[in-house]
Amino acid sequence: MSETVGTLHTKIRVAVLGATGAVGRELIKLLANRKFPVADLKLLASPRSAGITIPFVGEKLLVEAVGDDSFQDIDLVLASAGSSTTKAWADKAIGAGAVIIDNSSAFRMNPSVPLIVPEINPSAAKHHRGIIANPNCTTILMAMVVWPLHRVQSVKRIVVATYQSASGAGARAMEEVKTQARAILQDQPPPTEIFPYPLAFNLFPHNSPLNEQGYAEEEMKMINETRKIFNAPDLRLSATCVRVPVLRAHSEAVNLEFANPFAVSSAREILSQAPGVKLVEDWQINYFPMPIDATGRDEVLVGRIRQDISHPCGLELWLCGDQIRKGAALNAVQIAELLVRENLLGVPNTANKK
Ligand code: A2P
Question: From ligand 1's centre to the CA of 81, what distance in Å?
Fold first, then answer.
């Protein structure tokens, strides 16, 4: 990394681990579209993908199988290859002086690892020790909408139900839904490889492991990660996560309880000005956020903001956000931009190794 990190002209040597996945491919597009100062881009995946090419600013870059030497001369690793892969390579990457922004859940709840949504807790990045965790997609989308309200009046309790797209389970899962839909339309049995049950023309409660209280791992991620990002360890939350046959944008029905009434007009005003959030409401024609409109967009769409008729201090709202963008790749690239802007690249104690 050059001495001038932190200036706009600094060029960063970047590796994308999981480059062939749904999030990996979006990361590569965003690095180009957002003009991230890339000096070199290394594309890493499993040996299955070695040799395939992916376009990046007019070039076709070769994907390499990740290996012992992959992180030499790399400043920043954007990882989206699952928990076990990040865990397997984290020491090597950090040892080589790279900072990892990891999209998996491997390190999110580790107290020494910052868990960041740049619009909410950017200052947590200052304390990184080589790894920064990108939160769970449903958590990011909800946090983006709840935080601006929480800053005005602390939320006491959140109850959320999610409607999660196939993309959260990866590129192969998105293909599986299409294959299932084609099969069903031809009166054939839908094949299931990635998902445990058919998702096309169906839905099912999230299939991540269940704890002894009956909560799915995905639901506990929303609960624990929101508390960490908000720095609100006592915040009360409950979640029901459901997989729906949508390709790449998640939706969420969110119920918020405050200590005092929160005027709907104030909530609308606050959310219409919140960074990264777009208010989408036309009550005359029942037009509110839909996954089809959120797909490919950076903002989290929010609408149907209304008083909870069952509680004087309650608000109901509905949101949709692109799971691959703000739910994953965009948030990771925004963290990377933050690191460059704040001169936070380089790993404490290993930064001078190279
Ligand atoms: P590959 O395509 O070679 O399997 P998604 O979440 O969309 O399924 O993407 C997962 C990403 O993680 C892919 O790029 C995949 O590469 C990569 N990946 C999975 N397992 C490994 C591994 N053991 N080592 C490196 N990359 C991996």
Answer: 5
128 is catalytic: no
Q: CA torsion sign, 314 to 318 to 320 to 323?
A: positive
Tokens coding 185: 């339309």
Six token digits for residue 95: 């040892």
d(CA 101, CA 130): 9
Distance CA 194, CA 174 (A): 9
Q: Which protein residues touch ligand 1 with a CB less than 6 Å away?
A: 18-22, 24, 45-46, 48-49, 66, 81-82, 85, 170-172
Which residue type, as a one-letter code, is found at position 71? F
CA atoms within 13 A on the CB side of 342: 15
Element (H, E) at 25: helix 22-33
Q: Give strand pairing partners of 278.
A: 301
Q: What is the pLDDT of residues 257-313, one digit of tens each?
A: 999 999 999 999 999 999 999 999 999 999 999 999 999 999 999 999 999 999 999
The token pair at 246 is: 């949508």
Any idea what the Cα angle at residue 160 is, between residues 156 and 166, rounded to 5°?
Answer: 150
Q: What is the pLDDT of residues 28-65, one digit of tens each?
A: 999 999 999 999 999 999 999 999 999 999 999 999 99
In which order are the strands placed within the sheet that holds 131-133? Answer: 53-56, 59-65, 38-45, 12-17, 76-79, 99-102, 131-133
> DSSP letter at 326?
I
- Say how many residues make up the chain: 354
Pocket probe for ligand 1: among 17, 20, 43, the residue whose CB has the most ligand atoms within 8 Å is 20
Reduced to 3 states (helix: H, G, I; strand: E, B; else coil), residue 123 is: helix
Give the pair of three-digit tokens for residue 266: 């104030």
Torsion region of 183: left, alpha or beta (phi above 0 gives left; psi -120 to 50 gives alpha): alpha
SS3 call for 88 = helix
Structural domains in the chain, CATH included, are: 12-135+329-341 (3.40.50.720), 138-323 (3.30.360.10)
